[in-house]
Amino acid sequence: MSEMNGPFTGGPTLNDGVTMPWLGLGVWQTKDGEEVIHAVKTAIETGYRSIDTAAGYNNEEGVGQAIRECGVPREELFITTKVRNPDQGYESTLKAFEVSRKKLGLDRIDLYLIHWPVAGKYRDTWKALIHLQKEGLVKSIGVSNFQTHHLQDIIDDTGVVPVVDQIEFHPLLTQREVLKFAKAHDIQVEAWSPLMQGNLDVPLLKELAERYGKTVAQIVLRLDLQQGVITIPKSVHAERIVENAGFFDFTLSDDDVKAIEDLNQNHRFGPDPDNFNF
């Protein structure tokens, strides 16, 4: 993995040779139009180069507009989007991809993900992603919310290992099994809802924030980095977007990392991929 030398430079090298930034802006639940345009432009002005959206977020057009207007060359940005659950399946994924590409106004997507492992469909969806990559329309392909058995299925089926598995990951949900499998197969783990959807009122995290002179959010995001996990905190507030990038100038001790990991309760703020009404 690349040196962790700053929030906006370097990042892990994925199993296909592409480098992805450690930090990105998530835009889940960010309204299309002014809200998402402002958030994305603010992030890019701050120095962020990775933006994570999805067809299901209904804000790809705003993200695309912000990318066009931000003043940073397209090749310096890393844009992720995802195929919606209703669009899964081989042919329907290819069509859905074209819709996303047009909305974003991009010739090529940097990372295209299967949003959820829809039973009976995600294997064919994965084959469609492989096709899109072979056609040069997508630089890298991966998955989101896949448990180890879903990952094993698509690897067994195609021999193609996803570069990324984007999962709910935070101090109350440490996903040890997925992390272990990902490491063994050279899959990069990426955290969504790293800040527990704002549920940061945890005594240990507050105590550590005080001790390190950091915010609770910065403590949690630093933990992600030290565990080799890409992180994409979501915010629409300029000061938070800036603040969330401030976790590269300190290091948590091994004891403190262990203490945070011990907070795990296997608690999800989002749906369970194995028990989700797709």
From TrEMBL:
One of its GO terms (molecular function) is oxidoreductase activity. The keyword Lipid biosynthesis does not apply. Gene3D superfamilies: NADP-dependent oxidoreductase domain. Residues 23-264 form the NADP-dependent oxidoreductase domain. InterPro entries: AKR, AKR5G, Aldo/ket_reductase_CS, NAD(P)_OxRdtase_dom_sf, NADP_OxRdtase_dom. It comes from the Bacteria. Its EC number is 1.-.-.-. Keywords: NADP, Oxidoreductase. Belongs to the aldo/keto reductase family. This is Oxidoreductase YtbE. It comes from Paenibacillus auburnensis. The gene is ytbE_2.
